[in-house]
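[job 4417] fold queue: 2 targets
>>> target A
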Amino acid sequence: MSVSTELLDSVCKTLSGGLLRRADADRQLRLAHPGVPFSMCSDNDIPSRLKPLATGEGFALYGLNTSEHCAALTGQIESADGIVIGILDNDL
């Protein structure tokens, strides 16, 4: 499944609704969006040159491309089939 602007909007809305504060947020997103890989990390772990696909209060969403042997971050929605949630430092 590829990432769409609709999916990004849905994830932003869900995270802004309080899910970001839950320890199992990535698991809950996987249940809500079967087939889409989700991962969470500190936004500081994301290379600064990579621009997020979407942002919200306390987080930024980055694309994840799992089509090759190793998963890789991507700034292009067209090549993203998963989402990495970068949690901003002040929200850790």
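>>> target B
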Amino acid sequence: MKRLLVITLVALFSVGLFGCTAASNSPSTTDETDSSTNKNTNSESDDGEGPTLTYWYWADNSDYSDLMQNIITEFNETNDKGITVVGEEYPWDGGGFMETLFTASVGGGAPDVATFKLTSTPLFTANDLLANLDDYIENWDKKDDIDPNIYDIMKTASGTDSIYLMPWNTQVLYVYYRPSIFEEAGVEVPTTYEEFLTAIEKTTMDTDGDGQTDIYGFGMRGATGGQEPWGSFIHARGGSFDDLTSEASIRGMQDFIDIYENGYVPKTATTDGFNEIIANFKSGHTAMTIHHTGSSADMVETFGDDVSAFPFPAGEGQWTSMGDTENVIFESSEHKDAAFEWVSYLAAEKGQEDWTVATGNVPVSKTVQELDFFQENEFMKASIDGMSYAGIVPIKDTTTEWINTIWPNTIASALLGERSADEAMEILHEGLHEE
């Protein structure tokens, strides 16, 4: 029981930079899946009508609520199997949606399908609440329309070699930059990790000659949530969350420390959170920072054409953090074949296009990604380009405490010279992986 309570805290914590995205995140295909090819078969209604599915979802605003109901209506009217989806909206409530879903599920009142967060996977799979989707996906004619890395992330979340979540929409971190500052500093958009470090150095400038830095090269997030962009530095040196004490991981940590000690980031970086890094970038105080498409509209409103983006570049390794909203089918559903028709419609058919275009979330469908709407948007393009190497912070019993307390405290002490890179990484590794 103690283990389940701890994992529940992880599940309900909307990690770091991403927070809550709308009921799903989100342009066009029309082929229907032939569920007869799936190995999992379930008896459907024999009264001449197709099955009725209950779908629980959350929506961030009334426009998204209307959008989801319109998508449901279109699916109900166009699917050729007589399936009827009944959408029931619940508030996200700071993660309370997942708690409500879990409580209903263990009490025997689960819906057929629900929107879902990756971080909740271990709690639900440990209680055998989710349907295994391996056979469905293997026999799905649109399986290859989704990057294999996305499936791998689904497996990583479950801690198994199986998939229990159907991909829907994502938020992938990338680097925002100011083209005018790059031009003034005489640097090009980095294509390698070493070029990125050089760009941070060169875009740190005293523009008025008073001996004080006016523009810092990078907006570093040292407070809670900063573990996600920090992870890109660790992986770029060839390290990983799996072994934070490796030589490569320590080198990535040393890069992070050096950037701070050399004065390439604001001195407040040790306590800067989301609001601070965005404010520093929008005020022209920093040349680069890391976030996702959720802030792109505000950036364009502030800078017009003088803001753009690039994927975090590769070094010996490459990684960026991915936020998500997925869909799951419950093991208790008597209509799993029909449920897969619905979740696949949202993943790679018309529902995927309608949702992602309207909400501005990043589609998982390669076909949808190729639409001009996404390819002509540099922020979407940077997100899509990062999808093949995106990942998540490991979901463990220790993750919540590690994110909220251990990581920010340890990073602050390392940046301030109170701990070496080796010492800091030892603490971070033990804090994350201690069982």
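[job 4417] complete. Note on B: Residues 62-78 form the longest helix (17 residues).
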